[in-house]
Design brief:
153 residues, mainly beta, Lipocalin, 11 strands, 65% strand
Amino acid sequence: MQVFVCDATDLTSRGDPGTSTSERHTEAILDNHYLCVNGRSVYPKQERNPKGETHAEIDMWSYDRTRKTIVLRQFDTLGFVSTYVLDRAASTPDRWVLNAEHLENVPQGWRARYTYTRKSQAEYEEMLELDPDGKGFKPYVTNRFLKIAASAN
């Protein structure tokens, strides 16, 4: 599986909170053992989000050698801390599906899933799906990113 390491700007972002502009900055850290992604989405005042909001997150990607899998730990401005694990059966080299194995500060019973799809060398899409009531995943927000610069690492 190939990792999409870059700085990226959002082409389109739509979901329950409305329409936003987003950006991601990816950096390999600690002797290239981890990927750190700083992300920010700005939702202006709009019908679906009358007050508007700025949502920031820090994603830490690692490889768990014992389980032989990719792990994503996500921290965001809402106080949510989430741990996702790659679902190998549902993933391909250009489409990674990660299921939440732990959701902190989220109502009990919720489930979450991220899907990252590499569209080309210069473009990828991320989709967050939520299942708050056990009735199945529903898209919450989808972001489509365009690479703007290769990472120096």
